[in-house]
Design brief:
Layout: H1 6-21, H2 30-49, H3 61-82, H4 85-88, H5 90-95, H6 101-128, H7 135-165, H8 169-182, H9 195-201, H10 207-218, H11 225-249, H12 253-256
Helix pairs in contact: 1-6, 2-3, 2-6, 3-6, 3-7, 3-8, 3-10, 6-7, 7-10, 7-11
Length: about 260
């Protein structure tokens, strides 16, 4: 992205931020309150009503679930928020001579910042209750979040472009991310599954980042470095493909909006 477009991206990002909390009584306070409320509900449901235990040693199930759920939400929300970026900004795209992909980037970045802040709040709470990751674990978790972010951006660029030409793409993406939630190790530890099933699920490129994040911060379970680097490669390939698709089909966006 050229330097002259960075102020435009910042302004689009600020607009996304204002629109998200416009008319809200608590405003940006929801950044911390909502993830804390979600964590409290998880702790109550799975710690009291439905006692459960992960196959990860001493880690409590609410903590286990939080370390998988919040990274997943960061990824899924970014993709779902980005899918309608072109349609929602059709008026600006027609009048303002800017790269249309900036609107997707602003949507994804705003979503990642919101969910990333919530994730940080959750991690601070877990640290208060004894979560003590190693330096290697923090590095693995940071790389995992970066991979999820790049993958979300790449997918959002692709589906936002497809949504211009196929208007039911947003509904399809919502359904697919819902299914992907259950095909990713969020509610469960993949090591608990039967060998063949666990191996099949490993082909999901989101699995390695989720496991690296959870295992890295909990200190329980091996760090899947090789699989994580493969997922990073997949994310970069998807991003390159999204750029190529944008170059080929992006010129027709205004004709279909």
């Amino acid at each position: 992205m050229s330097l002259r477009l960075q102020p435009v991206l910042r302004e689009l990002l600020a607009r996304e931020w204002r629109e998200r909390y416009q008319g809200s009584v608590l405003g940006s306070a929801w950044l911390g309150l909502l993830p804390l409320a979600q964590l409290a509900v998880l702790a109550f449901v799975f710690g009291t009503l439905l006692p459960a235990r992960a196959a990860s040693g001493s880690l409590s199930y609410p903590a286990f679930l939080a370390l998988g759920l919040f990274p997943w939400m960061l990824f899924a929300n970014a993709v779902n928020r980005g899918v309608t970026a072109y349609l929602d900004n059709a008026g600006l795209i027609a009048r303002v001579p800017l790269p249309a992909s900036l609107y997707v980037h602003a949507r994804v970045l705003a979503s990642v910042l919101v969910d990333g802040t919530g994730l940080l709040v959750v991690l601070l709470v877990l640290a208060f209750f004894g979560l003590r990751p190693s330096i290697e674990g923090v590095l693995a978790a940071s790389l995992a979040l970066a991979v999820l972010g790049v993958m979300a951006l790449a997918l959002a660029r692709v589906v936002a472009l497809l949504q211009v030409f196929v208007r039911d793409m947003a509904a399809l993406v919502g359904q697919l991310t819902g299914l992907g939630f259950f095909l990713s190790p969020v509610l469960y530890e993949r090591a608990q599954l039967q060998g063949q099933v666990a191996n099949v699920l490993a082909w999901n490129p989101v699995v390695a980042p989720l496991e690296a994040f959870r295992h890295g911060l909990s200190g329980e379970g091996g760090l899947p470095w090789a699989a994580l680097w493969i997922s990073a490669g997949v994310a970069l390939v998807l991003l390159a493909l999204s750029v190529g698709l944008q170059r080929r089909a992006g010129r027709h966006i205004e004709d279909f909006l």
